[in-house]
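Re: weekly structure request thread

Next one in the queue (357 aa):
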Amino acid sequence: MQVYQLFEPVEPTVLVAPPQRHVLIVDDDDLVRETLHFVLEDGGYQVYSASSGAEALRILEREPVDIVLSDIFMPGMNGFDLLRQIRERAPETPVILITGYGNIEMAREALKQGASDFITKPYNIHEIPIMIERNLTRHSLLTNQARQYEDAVQKSYRATLDALLAALDTRDTETEGHSERVAAYTMAMANRLNLSAEELTNIERGALLHDIGKIGVPDSILYKPGPLTPEEWEIMKQHPVIGYRMCMKIDALRPAAPIVLHHHERWDGQGYPYGLAGEAIPLGARIFAIADTLDAMTSDRPYRKALSFAEAREEIIRCAGKQFDPEMVKLFLEIPEEELRMIREISLANRQQRAAA
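Done, posted below.
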């Protein structure tokens, strides 16, 4: 006997409980603090209590807190002082200020200093959970909007970066792919240092755009097949300054601009444009100098064949303390030759893929 199934079997719905909210109550009045604690805990919140601003800050250091409810008038650190401390230490945490002596001016001041809401006593204690949820929902919406805006800004900056790199490749066809390769070599070194994500981003951008100033170099000099005259060479040596000025006009590229400006400086002070020496040269530029030389030596040129990575390493070692920062040379030598070769192969493959697209 054949059984006809009219409907697909429905999988049982698994209800996922919303995450428990963590609330910190700060009030020197034991009765107020304990009453709020009881009501909020009964409402399903994880509640922490503090009788002073100092105790509240200690709790914030060790516990996950989603929102703070704080009285304003407390001995020692008052509510406004606590608000300022929270804005410095945990700027993403909403703070609701509570007082029994409230007026419009105080409410304005609270919001001006960064409070997410303001409550005056006496209040209906059963409305506090509603206010908490309202503030957390608003905070979540604002955070999402800020994240979306930041994503849009980063996409815009990335588009600007890509456009500048495309313009550079159009102008400097002899070393096509050089910017990407040298940035990858630079990051292979920088990632071995204890640098922040922001510092790493700025170093990468500076490496990518190091030669962007060549856009401002006349074609007669940039494409000249023979050696440059002393006058032409002086003009060519201005490309770091031109690139620096270009980067300084774009907010996101300003932190990377010093690398663009100083990427031709030398450890011994014999570089250009300013003849900086030693640690006066920005760290990113000192790292980049090694990566730039590595790519130049391991790339074919019309007047010579590429050197091997082993030969390039020996030359970089020879120039430590003269052209390069000796400590950065030691860092470079930590990178296995296989990793360097892989970086080059990936860069070339990416180029071929884009050319075929």
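The longest strand covers residues 22-26. Residues 39 and 151 are 39 Å apart (CA to CA).
Next request, please.
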